[in-house]
Structures are given as structure tokens and as C-alpha cells.
Specification:
about 240 residues; alpha+beta; SH3 type barrels; Fumarylacetoacetate hydrolase, domain 2; 2 domains; 5-stranded antiparallel beta sheet; two-stranded antiparallel sheet; 11 strands; elongated
Length: about 240
Amino acid sequence: MSNTSIDATHDPELKSWLESANDPATDFPIQNLPFGRFRRASDMDWRIGVAIGNQVLDLRRAGIIQSYDMNRLMRLSKEPRQALRQAVSDGLRHGSAHESRFREALTPLTSIELGLPCVIGDYTDFYTSIHHATTVGKQFRPESPLLPNYKWVPIGYHGRASSIGVSAPDLGHTFPRPNGQTKAPDAETPSVGPSRRMDYELELGIFIGRPNAIGEPIPMADAEEHVFGLALFNDWTARDIQPW
């Protein structure tokens, strides 16, 4: 999960004592400190880490946090979250007095198993692109693909949180092709079988860390106070099962 606020920790001039983090080709320079959960082959429990160069920094071993409960960490208010990121950045910078302690808390990315970044209790999918909404709408309503409410209210619906998995560029992610009912236009009854029209959508995942009480809306001006971070999300849909 990448943090959403831009501050001094994103200074393009920053360098790390970890040389792999200074490689122009790395996805994880010191300016990009994504949070996540991982474990090594000898571990049973998930740890909280930050990717840096070709390593992952165990935040508890580095003395930055006291617990491996990511959901608890996500509930922090904006100021403690920024202080946490600042502490990680300070410890990884070239010339840091904490280099020795931080080095002992590093593990190569090639030696870990990635987990979901947190316990996901629920998630809501939203349409945000008018082009996407129109394209999908044509599959169900060719004559009037865009519903009249689209421009006025967010089109959101619950997804299946239990189906969310984690993926990595070098590891990939596999899942079974879904089975379900479909009905051909010329068929009298539906049939059951594997989907023949699997679709995928690249989406932006927004992690809501701080909850609100039921019935108490969050003002727009305070919305970012509740956002812990962002991630890429790949949404798979069985387009032939969905309309039926």
C-alpha cells in the first residue's frame, strides 16, 4: 500500500545507504515506501514490512512499531502515520545513525512470501470512468448503455472480499475458472459450465483505515484522514455469467 500524501520523504534528491534502492530501475527507491505484510519460510505469522530496493524492512525488528497488527496501524490518524513514514525514511537515508539496526531488519524480496496487506473485511467497487461505464452498459442495454443516474450518484456495489488474493510480478497469481449458469439467446433453459468470457480490469484500490460510526457520514474535507494508502487492483469478471 502506497501512502497518499506528498511530503519531504518524496524528495527526488534523497539517497539510501542501501545501494539497490538507488538503482534507477528499481520499483522501490527511498521515495516509494509501500507498506505490506510478508513472512519468511521459517515464519508462521505475518510481519509488517516496507519494500526498499531489493529488500523488505521488518518494521518491528527495526524498532519502528510495536505490533504486527496492520489493521491497528491503519487506524492511526494522519499525524502518527506521517511520523511513521518519516521514521522509516530517516532510518534508510544515506548517513543515517540507525543504519546498523535497520540492516539487521532487512530480508531479500526473493526470500519472502507476500500476504494481503491487511485483513479485508469488505470492499465496494465503483464506476469512475464514463467510457468504461458506457462500454459495460452496452453489454446489457445496447440502446441505452449509460443509466441516467450515473452522472449524479456513485455507482457502487459490494464485491466478494473472500476472493481477494495477492500477486507479485515474478510469482503471478492463479485462480480457477469460475463455473456458473449462462443462457444463450436461442436456448429455452440455462446451462451450467465454465465461463468463456473472462474479463479483467485494472483498478485503483483505496484502503480505508479509520472507520466511521454507522449513520455518521464523513465530510469530503476529512475524507483523506481515513485513507491509509493506495494499491493496484485487478478485477476479474465472468462476463457471460454476470448478466444472467
